[in-house]
Amino acid sequence: MAASSSSDYSSFIAAHGAMVSEDGRRIEPFETQACYMLTEEIRSFGLGGHDSSISLARPASFQSESLEIAMSKAATILRYNAKWFAPPALADLITEVLAATVDSSSSAVFHAALDFLDTVLVYSILPPKECLYPTVRFLARTYYSASRANKTKKLGSKCWSVGLHLLHSHLGHEFLFALHKILGAEDSTSKDGFGEVVGALMVVKELLRSREAQLPDIKVTLLVLQLKVAAGSGNTIVHEYVRDVLIQIMMEEDSMQQLHQDAGWRDFLETVVLCVADDPQDATAYELVNRLNHHLPQIQQEDLLYKVGDLFVMVGLPLHLPLFTAIWSRRSPSKPIQTWVQGLDYRLRGLLCDPLYADQVSDFVQSAISGFEMSSSDADKSALVQELVRCIEMDQATSHSKGVLTMALAYMFRIGLSDGDSPEILCTLFLALCQALRYSTEAASALYRIRKDVEGHLYLRLADHEPAFLEIADPLPLDAWFAAFTDILREGAATWEAYEWVLQATKILLGNHTMFSDSMPALREIMKVVKSAVDRSDYIEPPAHTALNKSHVAAELVQNLVAILSYHRQLTKQENLSLVALFDSTAGSRDYIVSTQCIHALTVCCYEVPDLMSSHMDGVINRMSRMVTQRYLAIHVLHFFAGLSRLPDLYRNFTVGDYMRIFGVCHSYLQSARGAHAAAERSQTPTSGQSSVPRMEEALPEYVYALAHHVITFWYMSLKSGDREKVKPYITGCLTYKDADDSVIIEDQGLVTLDMMDRIDAEPRPSDDSDQDDEDVETSAANMPDPFFAVDGRVIETHRLIGLLLVTTKLALRTGKALIIVRRPSGTAWRLLVKGIAQVTVDGGGGGGGGGDDDDDDDDDACSIPIWPGDSSGRTYGTIRIPRRASALGSKTVITLPQDDAVRRAIEAFDRTSALDSHKAGVVYVGERQTTEDRIFQNISGSPGYREFVKNLGALERLRGAAFNTQGLDRAEDTDGEFAIVWHNKVTEVVFHVTTMMPNSDDATTNTGRKKRHIGNNHVNIVYNNSGGMLDYETLYNIFPGQLTYVYIVITPSARTSFVEARTVGVTRDKREWFYAVQVVTRPDYPNVSPAVEEKVVSGASLPGFVRNLALNECIISLMWTPRNDSAEYPSSWRSNLLIRPVHICQIVLSSYGAYHSYRAITNLQKYEDVTKKAAKWSTEAENQLERTRTTQAAGAIAILASILAALLLVLLGPSLPTWLRFSISPALLVGVLFARGHIKNHWASHNGKTVGKRIPLPNMEGYNEAQRATEEVLRVLEWVEYGWVANTLVVGLLGSR
């Protein structure tokens, strides 16, 4: 049989080979066996994976042929001989073709196989039972494979063409069912199964997109069921193709209508969920779910809408009202809380994790709050709270969601307090807020509003700037709160915002001493954590978007330690020392911001722990002296030294070396302010975090300059008398510098500082060498006692200008009693003696200060003048020691001023200008719950703490007849009160406008206006805030509107104190146990460089001195801050004596007027010169008259022109002129004008010395008459110019520069 078959096959092959040229039309005589033989031929290639039972002897002509040629020949024979292909045999042939093709990787084989299948479909009938499903699987797999590369696109087109032929055949519906069967086979895990499923999905998509009428209809509902099975495989690629098919379905209105009619929405949505859940962020997933928007009206069932809502949340689409209602329908507050709390599943978490659903989350929060309010079950409320906490702790939840949920907890806590909920619920809410603290700023905002009042009762502050509170009757687990924020300080929070809030709010909370008075272990743990972080520089790194760096965190940590320092009475000495040492070591060693905060911390230490600072001061001074290269720290270092100079207990043990270091710091900053050290500045630049923030200190070089001189003045006054001579040469060198021409320059404030040192050193020394009394003030010439009596006889008064000193002597010729008054830039001093030497300076040689009889007159460098100019030797009435000629204070000439009204008026004007730097600051008491200025200004008293503060702020001075500058307070009728609080030392004075010391008016409006007349005109006001609310600049501006107040120093008791508590607890408590938060708040454009720019906590004992120092600093800088003017020089009283530019301008105007009249006089007199010359030849009197006319007119013209030129020179180039020239111009011009005026008077005004007398018009000499009138005007002008040069000589001569 086998041999026969082989023979027949060979014969067929030979015959077939012969018929190739005839296109396979004739296969006789093997018609009945052709199909079998073709099957055997394809199988003979061994590619189908089947074992042949017959060993074939292939003819030699077929040795080189391939599988695709065999399939092409089979297709050719089938095309012409289809009738001989019986269905069973054809089924075997198709099976072999499909099997051989599947194992092939040649596209030619696939093309041949598809051609064969297409031939079968056209010329024969595909056996459906045996071949339809395998064929459809083959087509699906081939269609998918062809789509993976561009080079196989033709194969895909061929595959689609074969599929269309099949669909158009009577097997079209069976083809669709075969596709459904492939999709529902759940065989996408294998390689072939995956290709078949994806290919089937691709074919279905193309069929849905194709709109040929002849194609069979796709049953969408059935298709969706199979798609659901395919999507259930979990393969992401399959999901992608399923999504494409679903999108195509939704694009066809007929398909969606069929789905709706067949109630297929549930399966459809479940299929969508399956293929969207694994990749909801995919674009096709978004498109698929988004298309559901158009079909929402067709979806009526609540549970289906619930699914749609889930899908919207998954892909991040906005929820429509029906969807949101469906999602939260099970969470209605009308239902028991436990019912809808149990349903809080991933749907809620999906909303929480997407910022798109902010509104929906807010609605949920409202629902939760409503449920909390309506519930009467503590268990239900507790369950709700715990669920909210779990939602907050979700890592994926947005910050907004966490914030809204935390706000719900905070609101519930507030509701619980208002409604009197059980202590258990309140504790549950409080602990929930503690848990949420690391996730949300809202939790911090709620918790840090909790405070304790002065008696230790808890309350909740409802608003920052309003006195509104809720009392907390039951105890709360505060230790859990302390532990929560301590952990955050140690480890950080979930968000930077939450960490920063805790960092900034903790320092304020620490100021509430009653909160921690019973929790010192917790306080010590906070101190340990914060101190360790600063010591090890272990800070949380701020995120990039904040533009901050670690120094910001370090500065906040330092401020927390400053607040902890206020507990120094409860801490051990070692703990306090460690804090001081930390501030000292950190200052100057790190970033500018950190160093600034440490300097401020050391300032507070000086007031709070002076005993420790005294022992640590040597290191602090050394540290400050090493900061001179950091110019940004200049203001803060100088503030520290200025405040320290007013605390004698701290520098009691200072050595000369310590003083020299302080003066050296001032010297360095003076050089920096002058620009001398610009090239030597440290090359280190600020960090990026700070460089973006403009430093206010850079804009205040004038303030640094003035403050450095103040510090020198304060510290020089604090020196012992015996030590001043050791440091004076060094200070003098600090106050001078050389310009580009190598000329020594002494600036205005340098001169007055030198004058101040000389005045202090010249004062009579006390009997012991103790410290100088810091409260001594200047002696005013206006209130000086008159020492002369009738027995003294005639008193001669003389005024002499000697360099910077105006020396007035009043001498009784009979008794020799002499009163020497020395007016100088830094003040006025006087000496009373009978013969001897009046020591008014130590710059003249001959020993130190003293005032009595000093006969040491043999010093070669000593300079003196006789008390009475007529006593040239000074042996009769004595002498006055004056500055050396070469000294900056002295002069080569002594100018005796004339005894006329101009000199007297100029001296009186000088006496009216106080040498003290006089400042003013308001003090306002804000009582409990007071928020309007009418109520505030009605206060005539305050709490005991306030009264103690005011009492120690300065001395009580009577206003009526006061000799000091009352800064606008009435000194005649007591309309502003009988007394004022005044603080002063030898150079500075501060008058405090205390509103409670001013009497009230019956009318509130009048009362407010009268008090605000002072308060509203003060640049600086101190506000003692006992209202219970917080006060910032905006709030204070709303209470006291005005444009002139730049600074408020707000003092707030650290523990809320009611009216009754202040007058019960406050009376018995030691002021060292009272604590106050002090903060300087300023208008936004004002440079706030105060040590209290951040809130500082100080005790009641330290409060007056600390606040007074702050006020003095702000008074100085506020005078220099001129937002609408480029000039920012410090207008001190010393410098005000130098501001004579208006005088020069008046001199220019007057002299120009006089020059015009001088020109008129001279030109008119020249008309008669020839006649006069002829008369002079015959008359000596005529010759003399001619000469005097010429010289007087020339003298007047020269004096006027010299005055114009000198005044112009001083106005335009005054600051740049050499010191000797500035000293000389005024006296020289005064002498010149006096001479010219006297010379003119002798000739032209001999009648009364002022006018030309009674004019008798000369006939035919109108020009001469006009010259007389012009000369009279010249005399008047010269008189006024003389007054100007007298004033200028006094001021410029006293101060040396303008």
UniProtKB/TrEMBL annotation:
Keywords: GTPase activation, Membrane, Transmembrane, Transmembrane helix. One of its GO terms (biological process) is regulation of small GTPase mediated signal transduction. Residues 907-1148 form the Rap-GAP domain. GO terms for molecular function: GTPase activator activity. The chain crosses the membrane at residues 1194-1214. Residues 769-778 have a biased composition (Acidic residues). It comes from the Eukaryota. InterPro entries: ARM-type_fold, Rap/Ran-GAP_sf, Rap/Ran_GAP_dom, Tuberin-type_domain, Tuberin/Ral-act_asu, Tuberin_N. Residues 761-784 are annotated as: Disordered. GO terms for cellular component: nucleus; TSC1-TSC2 complex. This is Rap-GAP domain-containing protein. Pfam families: DUF3384, Rap_GAP, Tuberin.
